[in-house]
Structures are given as C-alpha cells and as structure tokens.
Specification:
The chain is built from 16 helices and two strands. The protein is mainly alpha-helical. The protein folds into two domains: 32 residues, no CATH class; 383 residues, Cytochrome Bc1 Complex, Chain C. It is globular and about 65 Å long.
Length: 420
C-alpha cells in the first residue's frame, strides 16, 4: 500500500530518483501515504514513540560522553554530570523521565492495538515486531537503571539477574552458569557494570532497526482503524500529510507538556530516593522495587512462592503476547462492535493497574486497613492475566454475537458528520 506515484520535475530530481529514490520514498510512503480517514487520538502514539526513541538516543549519546562505567567511579560520574557538566542535569532528567514517558506511550499504544484488534490478520507481523520492541525496551530500561550504581541500581541488578538461578531446579548448575555469565564473575561488580553499559548503549540502535521493520510491515497492509474494517477505496483515506502530520504534532505538543512537567517540576517523582545513596554490597535496602513500568510483571513474579514457577510465569506473561493474533478467535477486529469482550478488555486494564499497585508494595503488605494480604490480590490478578489471553479471548470469540460492522469507513464517517 502506497501513496500516489511521484514524478520528478527537474533534471537533478530525475538523476537522483534513478540512483537513490529517497524523495520518491518520502512522497509515496510518508507524505502522500493513504491513511484511513477516521484515525483518532490513540493512533498518534506511534509517532510519539518515535520521538521518544529519538530523545533517548540523543540524550544517551551525550550522557555516555561523561559517564564512567566503573564500579568505583560510576556513582560519582553521575553526580559530575548533574553538578559540573553544562546542562548535564537537564540531559539526565530528560533521559531518566524520558524512559517513563516512553513506557507510558508504549502501554497506551499496546492497549490501543488490543482494543481495536490491530494484531489480527493481515497485521500479525506488525504485532509480533511490536512485542519484540517491547521486550527490547524492557531489557534496555533494566540495563540503564543499573548504571547510576546507587543502592537500588545495585540491588536491582543483583535480584533480577539472580532469577535465572531458578533454572538450577531444571538442570543443576545451568541457572548459576547463566548468572555467572551475566555478572562476568561471582558477584555484581565492575565486569557487570561494563557489560551492562555496553548493552545499554547498543540496544537502542537495535530498537531503531526493529522500528524500521515495524513501520515497513505496517505499510504493507496499511493502518488499522477504530472500526477495524478494511479500506475499500480512495474515499476511505486521506494523505498522511498534512492531515495527520498536523494532528500528530498537536498531540505530541500536549504530550511534551506532561513530559516537561516531570523534567522541570518533579524530576525524581518516578524514581527511588534510595538510589541517591552509593551502591553498598553489604547493606540491603529494606524493600527492592523496580521502576513503575515493570511493577505488574514484578507482582506476577512475587505472587508465586516457588521461584522457578514464578520466573516461568514472568517469562510466560511476555511470551503469551506473541500469540495474541491466534488466540483471538473473533471474526471482528474492533472491540467497539464486541459488547461482551469489551467488558473483559476493561477488566484486563484494571487488572494491570492492580498488579502494578501490588508490585509497588512490600511483599508482606495488606490491602489498605484490611486483613487481606496483597499477595493474594496479586495471585488473583496473575490468574486473570493468563485467563484473559488463554481462555477469555478464544472462548468469547466463539460465543459472542458482535454488533453490525459498517460497510466502509467513508459511510461511517459521513453518518456521524452533521449535515450543513
């Protein structure tokens, strides 16, 4: 699927087009690309995510020029960036809060895809590449969180990498070998920091590459839309520019206001104060908590007492996302026309929020002032998470009677437009 054909108008343009058709590509796949005319605000987060990735790479490169990946110097080098480097405080807060904004945007993007059925045929590859991007983002964020080498950084790296030791239950020594390999020794130390820094610098470029594949895969069948129906003809589309570039720029500006508020007015709200204390291998923090965007998965891990099963559940909660395209048996894409499944979708959203809250609290905490242990709430949330994908999606698609779907995008849009 591509836009109207490009015709070079000058001799230089024809010469360039025959050798490097970059202008043709931008015209046909960016500027004039036919886009469904009914895309709403939730579809702007793809562009916002591209912006976030650019900010993270740009600020990360400059921060790396001043950071020292050494267990004795890393913490002080971060303080040097904050206090002595011109604009260093701004770069660091843009980068650290940018990670949170990146994950906020990606969660909205993913739930939008789930709601409108953007994972269904013929867009399975787009969804799978999106899940790969999400996993790469999680790995990059974890590696980056260890680099300040504060207390939470050090002990977070120790706890998370130790999860792999659970595989000793399957093959004796296998999990320990993985942990030792990750650490580069027999404990989290200088070698660990060096390899984590190297990988943290490398992975964003891998993410950028997969983003290119993601967009390429998107441009083969074209965008999905809130109605979940295919484009029937030119009457259903608009050129991407200027209609959606202007819209995306407006919502990006709104997003930047939120981003800037955190950077300038609450830069440490989403972090942990204890990470401003240097790493101390002989003093364990009272409670080790990951960043907010990992909390639902952390709650899944902690809700199961058996270490191996907990780790398998953690990995399973990500692996199941790769198969969503085939687990959903409904012939209708958009949840707008699925009244029964819509209720389960919102239960999933609430479940994710509850798991996030459970993950943020101590493992022995109770639900407010009640005698109910939060770990049981986490277990219920974990069970529903897997039930949603493995039972609800296949079953509801078979028994549900969806609402009538419009014949075309144009008819649906014109039907909701007031007559002049």
């Amino acid at each position: 699927m591509q836009g109207t054909s490009y015709t070079p108008k000058s001799g230089f343009a024809r010469w360039l087009d025959s050798r490097l058709p970059i202008i043709r590509f931008s015209q046909e796949h960016l500027m004039n690309y036919p886009t469904p005319r009914n895309l709403n605000v939730w579809y702007t987060f793809g562009g916002i995510l591209t912006f976030c990735l650019g900010v993270q790479i740009a600020t990360g490169i400059v921060l790396a020029m001043h950071y020292t990946p050494d267990s004795q110097l890393a913490f002080d080098s971060v303080e040097h960036i904050m206090r002595d480097v011109n604009g260093g405080w701004l770069l660091r807060y843009l980068h650290s809060n940018g990670a949170s904004m990146f994950f906020l945007a990606v969660y909205i993007h993913m739930f939008r895809g789930l709601y409108y059925g953007s994972y269904k045929a013929p867009r399975e590859i787009i969804w799978i590449l999106g899940v790969i991007l999400y996993v790469l983002m999680m790995a990059t964020a974890f590696l980056g969180y260890t680099l300040p080498w504060g207390q939470m950084s050090f002990w977070g790296a120790t706890v998370i990498t130790n999860f792999f030791s659970a595989f000793d239950s399957l093959v004796p020594g296998f999990g320990t070998a993985i942990v030792t390999w990750l650490w580069g020794g027999f404990g989290v130390d200088n070698a660990t920091l060096h390899r984590f820094f190297s990988l943290h610098y490398l992975l964003p470029f891998a993410i950028a590459g997969v983003v290119g594949l993601h967009i390429w895969a998107l441009h083969v069948p074209g965008n999905n839309n809130p109605l979940g129906i295919d484009v029937k003809g030119p009457q259903d589309t608009l050129p991407f520019h200027p209609y959606y570039t202007v819209k995306d720029f407006f919502y990006l500006s709104c997003f930047l206001i939120v981003y800037a508020w955190f950077v300038f007015f609450a830069p440490n709200t989403l972090g942990h104060p204890i990470n401003y204390a240097p790493a101390n291998p002989i003093q364990t923090p009272e409670d080790i908590v990951p960043e907010w965007y990992f909390l639902p998965f952390y709650a899944i891990l902690r809700s199961i007492q058996n270490k191996l099963i907990g780790v398998l559940a953690l990995f399973g909660s990500l692996i199941v996302l790769f198969f969503v395209s085939w687990l959903d048996t409904s012939a209708v894409r958009s949840t707008r026309f699925r009244p029964l499944y819509k209720q389960f979708f919102w239960i999933l959203v609430v479940d994710a929020v509850i798991l996030g809250y459970v993950g943020s609290r101590p493992v022995d905490a109770f639900l407010f002032n009640t005698p109910i242990p939060l770990v049981w709430i986490g277990r219920i949330g974990t069970v529903y998470y897997f039930l949603h994908f493995l039972v609800v999606m296949p079953l509801v698609g078979l028994i549900e009677t969806p609402k009538p779907v419009p014949d075309s995008i144009a008819k649906a849009v014109l039907a909701t437009t007031p007559a002049e």
